[in-house]
Structure formats: structure tokens, C-alpha cells
Amino acid sequence: MKRKQFLYWFSIVLEIFLIFFSGGNSSRADAASDVNSAISNGLTEIAQKGSQIDSRADTASDVNSAISTGLTEIAQKGSQIDAWDATCLVFGDNGITDLQAQYAYKSILKNNDFLSGGSQGLNGISDVSAVNGLVAIGKDPTNVNGKNLVADIVKDANNAARVKDANNPAIAYSIVNDLEALSTGSYGQASETARTSLTKKLIGMQDQKTGLWNGFDKVDYTARAILALSMNTNQPGVADALNTAVKAVSNHLYQENGGFADSRNTMFGAENAYDDVTMTNALASAGVNVYVPLKGKTDYVAPVQRVLDQHPVSAGNSAMLIQQATWTFEQARFTRNGGKGSIFAFNQTDAAKPGEIVSIKAAAITKKWSIINDPQATPAAQGDALNLVDQILATYVSKLSADSTSSAAIADRAAGIMAFNHVTVSHAAPATPVMPPTVTNNNVTVVNNPASSSSASSSSSATSTSSSSSVPISTPTVSGKPVKKASHRSIVYALTTVKLYRSSNFTKSNLTKTYKKRARINRPMFLVISQQTNKQGHAIYRVKDINSGKTGYTLSGSKYFAHAYYSAKVTRIKVINPKGINEYGKVNLTSKKRHVKKNASLNVRKVVNYGRSNRMQLTNGRYITANKKFILATKIKKSSQNTRPSTPTATTTGTTTTTNNLPSTTPTLPVAPTNPVTPSNDANTITTTISIHADGATIASGSIKVNSGASALDALQAFAQQQGLALTYTGSGATAYVTGINGYNAGPAGTMTGWLYSVNGTEPGSSMGVYTLKDGDSISMTYNK
Questions:
Q1: What is the pLDDT of residue 340?
Q2: Which CATH number is 59-337 given?
Q3: Which residue in 174, 181, 126 sits closest to 151, CA to CA?
Q4: Distant-in-sequence, close-in-space partners of 239: CB < 8 Å, separation ≥ 6
Q5: Which of 117, 396, 734, 772 is the most buried (most CB within 10 A)?
Q6: Rounded distance, CA 290 to CA 281, Å?
Q7: Do 621 and 584 touch, CB atoms closer than 8 A?
Q8: What is the H or E stretch that residue 778 is in?
Q9: Mean pLDDT estimate for the chain
Q10: Dihedral sign for Cα atoms in the order 706, 710, 713, 714
């Protein structure tokens, strides 16, 4: 016991030293700067090991900026990444890489006292960090190189729970640390029994007069107790204890500047960045919205804003402060988006789903608006990119909905956002008339997230693979040059269902075989013999089935086919073939050197042309296949040559353009008309575009031609009829009011639920029934709930 007391007091002295000497500038940033400037400046400062972000906008955006800044700082530490760093990275938008996870695992084995051959460390801190890190990277803490870390924690937890002197600082911190560690997952009956015992013990330690927990640092210990209990809300008495604690924190510890301090502790009760971060994280874990002042304190600063003002994730701060602040921002965002409980409770059923679905939909909206607002993008390129974002969103929303644990949902959200980030769109318009589209020899594949996930991949998307953790996405870009014919006798594989005809006349009687859409590793491959346009006006290939030798004709284009072999500047790949691949000493794939199993990552020096089937030379000088059915490019050096012509997905009838959207069960996000609207030359008619949005998704978007002098309501009625939308409204002229579109109805009088409209980005001060449109106006309808 004396050893633990000594270690406890030593930790307090160490923390005080860090507080006063490690940094944490509290100067406020420029509130007038926008979030993009904050993110850009913050990441630049981090990269240059500067001091802090020098611009700031709204609080919610600042949290995202701070998270990004913190993760960047963590990632730069490379081989120094430890368990807490790994936890931060896993909860970040892009997840954790294989290499980072390996560094974290080695760090855990080295630094945890039990796993490295010693005895339990400082009041359970070493154990709780190890368990969090292990679970975050997908390792089992009950079997780490043959050692059961959980069993050791249970042993210590049982000892702590039996000690009568619960006010002993060493015992107090052992209780919260052991409880948090055991609450990260389900580890058997002994662990659950210990959790119940520790929870009861912790509730019993709550001061009945103040509602707080008494410790050397009351702010820190109360925060740790709240965090541990928030991971055990199903235990008896926890809900009441948390409610009491949150009120007590607001009444006794909350400061006007948004921070937390114990005014009765004259020596160590002063506010500091560590306590502010820890308490903000705890309150968010307990379900408190830390983006606003605590209840009854409207003239106070919000807790998360106070943390932001201290710039805790800036370069130059201690590693511990960067870690704690980063996961605090992640927890705050998680709770604000609808997540329940602590992010460290990895096995929570459905807890992370609401927040992760909100996050991925928001990321999709951001990506689509960036595509729509790109002034140099061609309409066809925009259409392709927007449709791809829709496909990615549908795939990952489906995966998130099927996830059964928080960790799975977090991993799938990270993989989806990474896929969005790799969708690109061409900036160059064709200089000459374009030939029928064809597949180029440069198909770029998006990085897949290595974080573990329990969800199964969707078989309904062209982006599916056999991997259960992520979905590789083919990223179309549009070439700025006239499309050339396919390379003679190049090899492609089918992305979706394709049909083979015995002649170029595509009739039912000439159909010889239908190839159903398959997962990537099972896609049928074809040798392209020639390309032409048939009598029906379709761009087609004459192909030979690589497997059966059957020849015939099929539709061509990037919607149907992609090159089966990489030719872009790939620098890293992941093996996706279930049976693995071989490394060879020669480019003709002879002189086998070793077998590489599925999911292994390999570094690539270059892609080597070898007839119709390319090879990859690894950095070790050996050769592997470049076939996309066997490997997935996870890193590609950017190049203007990595382009792939696409087939426009829009259909145009007269002056009306519509975009092929996903099925009605999966609402799409903002989409731009594939044909830009230009002023009409007809003096009697005008053209306007209309987009209708609800729940962060787009119900419909397109253009409509109406008579000159028409009102905004006239155009909406015509558009609704064109799109087959259910539209209801009351009144006419100045009293006209839209009451419902496709089941999204206005609420009772006195509520804010209903439809708002704007024209060219501005809300008119009049009813839609009297607003007269001009040629080229753009109407936006948004459902407010």
C-alpha cells in the first residue's frame, strides 16, 4: 500500500509540473476568421511545429478543426505512438493505419507493467490505457501474447473494492481506472462481477452533501468518476448519481469563463487546462451538451469553448494534454451528434450509430457541395462524381445500420469518409467533340480503412468486395482530352451486370449470356478486341471472355467496365485475394520467392508494363501481379494522367434535365443539374432550377421551364408534377403557404416546423405566391424541423 501511495503523490507532483511548464496558451484566436482558415492555419502550424491555431469561427467547426489538429500532431510522432494516441486516431475521421496500430501495440507491450513482466503500475493508469488501446486496434486484452490483462485488472479491482478506506487517494484512483478498463467491453462473468462491485463502491463514495467526489484534486477525481459511471448506466443507482453529479459540478465547480475549479482548495484548486479537458470529456460522456453553457448559467462560456480557447492540441504542448484534449473533442462531437455514453465503451449496442450516421451524411453533403460549386468541373464529371458519392453514402449507411457495436460503427464511418475524400472530378472541358466513352488504362482505387469492423459488406453496390471491414471504391474522373478508342486487346473486368450478344445488334434473340454483378475478387474478365458504335447508337466493345473463351459484343463505358490491371503510379497495395498472392523474382512471375497472405500490405516501387497484364515491382525488387481482383491500391501518387472517362448518368428531354438517383428508400444529397441552366432565348418562357431538401438529403433537383411572369409557387407546382412529387399548400398569392412535400409536412401553428424557400441563396420577404421569377433563378426548398 505504501508503494501505491508514493506513486500517487509522485503522479500529482508530475501533473502539477506539466500544468505549469508544458504550455497551453490561453489567448483567444481571431473570432472573425472562418473555419477553413482555422483548419488550414492549424495544420500548417502543426506541420511546422508552430504554436497554435490563429483563427477561429463557430464552436462546432472549431471542434472539428481541433480534432484534426490533434490527430495531425499525434500522427507525426510515428513510432512514438502509444495506447492513448491509438485511441484518438481510431475515433478520428480517417481512422488508424496498419503501421500506426503496430507502433501502438509494441508500445503497449513495452510500457504496460503486467504485459512487460512487472506488477501493476500507477493506480491502474497503465492498465486502463493498455485496454483502451488494445480494443481500439482490434486486439483482445484477455489474450495478449498469452497473457490475460483483464484477469490482472479484475484481481486488483477486487482488492480495491474490499478496502474500507475508500478515501485513500491511491485506492480511489484504482477504483475509477479499473472500472473504466473493465467497462470497455464484455470480458466474462468475473469481469462483470467486478464492474458491479466497483460501480457500487464508487456511488457510495459520492459526497451526499455536495454531490461531488472528494479527492486531492476534486475536479479531476469527480470528472473521472462521472466518466466511469457513464460507461455503466445500466447498473443500479448510476442514473441518479450522474444527475446529482452534473448539477453539483454546475453549482460548485463551473467557472464563468467556461472552465472548472475547486475554490475551496487554495493550493491545487485553481483552474487548469487538464482539469477543463477532463471535466468537459466527462460531462459529454454523461450526455451533457458541452457546446452550450451548463443549465442555469446562460451568461457563462460553454465548456468546449473554454477548452478551444486554451489551444490544447497545438504543437509544443505536452503529449498528454494533446491526447486528452483530442479525445475530449471527439467525445463532445460524438455526444452532440446523438451518440450515447462514453466513446471508450467500445461494445455499446447501437450507442454510436446515431452520431456516426449523422457524421457520414454531413461529410457527404460537404463533399457534394464542393463538387457542385467547382466552377471548372464539366457537367458530366459532376454527374459522375455526385452519383459516386451517393453510392458510397448508401453503402456505408447500410453498413452502419447493420453494425452491432460502437467500434464497428466508428470504423465504418471512418472508411466512408475516407472514400468520400478520394472522389475526384475533372477540371478540363473537352476541347473537341468526344467520341463514345471508353475505359482508359488508369483506374484509381480509393484507400480502404484498416480499422476493424463487424459489419458485412453490401453486395448491392458496385463497390463491394469480400472484405468485411471496408469497401473499395473506384473513383471516376473525366479526361480533358478527346476520348481515344480502347487500347487494342486490353483486359477489363465488369463492374456491374453486363450482357453478351452474338452480334452488334442488341436484341433479345442475339443475347448469349448475362454476367451478374459480382464482388471484386470474382468479377468476370474480358479481352477487348475492338470498339465501335452499333446501329442503335450505342458505344460497344467486341470482347472475349478470359475464362470461357466466348466472344461477343457488349455495352462499353466506365459504368460497365474498368481495366483489370493497375497502371497508375501505385506506391502501396493491400492483398484482397482470400488465397493471397505470391512474390516472384522475375517479371514474368516465375522464380517464386514467398507467399503473401490476405490483408498484407506491400510497398510498390513501380508498375511494369508486361503485355496485356501489368506487373508491380515491390521496393524489395520482387514482382507481383497488378490484377485488381487480387490486390487493392491503398496509396497512389497523384498524377494528371490518372483519368478515367465516364458516361453521363443524366437524361435530358427537351429543356428538362434529371439525374439518376438512388432508390427512394435511400434519399440522395444535394445534386446539381447535369446541364447548366442558361437564360432562355424564348421571350415567353423562362427557365429556373429547383432543389428540395429535407433531413440533410435532397428529395429532388432539376430545372423547369415556365411562362414569363410566373411566381415561385407556379414553378414549384410545375416541378412537382414533372418529378411526381406530392405537393400540398394553402391560400394563394400573398397568403400562399406550402404545407407539405412528399410527406414532410408543416407542424402546428406556433411551431418552427415547415418549409422555407430561398431564391439565389436569399430568403425573399414575401410569399412564394407573389414572388415573380426571372430567367435563370434558382429556388431552394428546405424543410425545417
A1: 81
A2: 1.50.10.20
A3: 181
A4: 233
A5: 396
A6: 9
A7: no
A8: strand 778-784
A9: 73
A10: negative
User: Sign of torsion, CA 263 264 267 272?
Assistant: negative
* CATH number, domain 685-784: 2.170.130.30
* Predicted TM-score (pTM) of this structure: 0.48
Distances (CA, A) of 539 to 164, 200, 463: 82, 72, 23
Is-contact 126 144, C-beta < 8 A? no
Write a three-state SS string for 360-415.
HHHHHHHHHHHHHCCCCCCHHHHHHHHHHHHHHHHHHHHHHHHCCCHHHHHHHHHH
Q: Which residues 6+ apart lie within 8 Å of 66 measured at CB?
A: 42, 53, 308, 312, 313, 325, 326, 329
What kind of architecture, by CATH, is found in domain 570-636?
Answer: Roll (2.30)
Q: Phi-psi bin for 578: left (phi > 0), alpha (psi -120 to 50), beta?
A: alpha
What amino acid is encoded at 687 in this protein? Answer: T
Residues 6+ apart with CB under 8 A from 323: 70, 74, 84, 85, 88
Q: DSSP states of 25-75 as a string?
A: -----BTTS-HHHHHHHHHHHHHTT-S---B---HHHHHHHHHHHHHHHHH
Say if CB 493 and CB 500 are below 8 A apart. Answer: no
Alpha-carbon dihedral angle through residues 500, 501, 507, 512, given to the nearest 10 degrees: -80
Tell me, what's the pLDDT at 72?
64
| 192-251: pLDDT as tens digits | 999 999 999 999 999 999 999 987 788 999 999 999 999 998 899 999 999 999 999 999
Residue type, 55: S
Nearest to 130 by CA among 155, 158, 153: 153
**DSSP code of 675?**
S
Q: Taking the C-alpha atoms of 307, 308, 311 and 313 in order, what is their torsion angle to the nearest 10 degrees? A: 80
Question: What DSSP letter does each residue of 93-124 carry, written as one string?
Answer: TT---HHHHHHHHHHHHHH-TTTTTS---GGG
Cell (9 digits) for 71: 490527430
Check residue 253 and report its DSSP letter.
I
- In this structure, are strands 685-694 and 778-784 parallel, antiparallel, or unpaired? parallel
Measure the CA–CA gap between 31 and 19, rounded to whole angstroms: 26
Grid cell for residue 308:
478551444
Burial class of residue 523 (count of CB atoms within 10 Å of its CB; 0-12, 13-18, 19+): buried
Continuous H helices in 231-290: 238-248, 273-285
Give CB contacts under 8 A, 24+ apart, made by 6-15.
7/121, 7/122, 7/123, 7/170, 8/122, 8/123, 8/169, 8/170, 8/173, 9/169, 11/122, 11/123, 11/125, 12/216, 12/217, 12/268, 15/217, 15/274
